[in-house]
Amino acid sequence: MGVLLSADGDVRETCIYGDHTGRARIYFEDGDLLQGEVNRDGDIILGVLMEPSGYKYIGEFDQITAHGFGICTYPDNHQYIGHYINGKRQGLGMYLFPDGDSYVGEFKSGKSHGFGCYLTACGHYYYEG
After folding, report:
1. In this structure, are 51 and 103 located in the same domain?
2. Neighbours of 47 (CB within 10 A)
3. Are residues 44 and 36 in contact, defined by beta-carbon separation less than 8 angstroms?
4. Rounded Cα distance, 63 and 114, in Å
5. pLDDT of residue 127
6. Residues 2 and 53 in one domain
C-alpha cells in the first residue's frame, strides 16, 4: 500500500499487484471519495465515486472522470443508468425520476437529445425524436 499526497490536498492510496494493476482509493480535499480498479498506468478504470452531498456514481472511468457505462444516483433520488463521455451523459441511457416517471433514449452533453420516450408513472408515454 502506497500513499501519495498531491499539491492540491488530495490523498491517493494504492495497492499495486505484480502485473501493475490493482486498487486505488482517492480522498479529495472537498470530501469526495473515489475508489476502484486501476490499470497498468495507475488510472482508475472501474469504481465508485461518492460525494458528501449523497451523489454516487458506479461505473467506468477514464482516470478520475466518468467515462463509459455507469449508474448515477443524485441526492434528490433521481437516477441515471447509461453511457458517459468525459463526465457527461452521452449516448443511450435511462433517467428515472423519484415520482416514477422515466425517460429512455439518447443523451448529448448531459441532456436528453434525439430519439427517446418519456413514460409517466401512470402509464402515459410521449415520443421524442
Report:
1. no
2. 23
3. yes
4. 29
5. 72
6. yes
Q: State whether the Cα torsion 49-55-56-60 is positive or negative.
A: negative
Give residue 14's pLDDT. Answer: 59
Element (H, E) at 127: strand 125-128
| pTM of the model as a whole | 0.85
Predicted confidence band of residue 17 (pLDDT cuts 50, 70, 90): low
Total number of domains in the chain: 2
Q: Taking 80 as the threshold, does the pLDDT of residue 123 lie above it?
A: yes
**What range does the domain containing 25 cover?**
1-57
CA–CA dist 35, 33 (Å, integer): 7
C-alpha cell at 108: 448529448
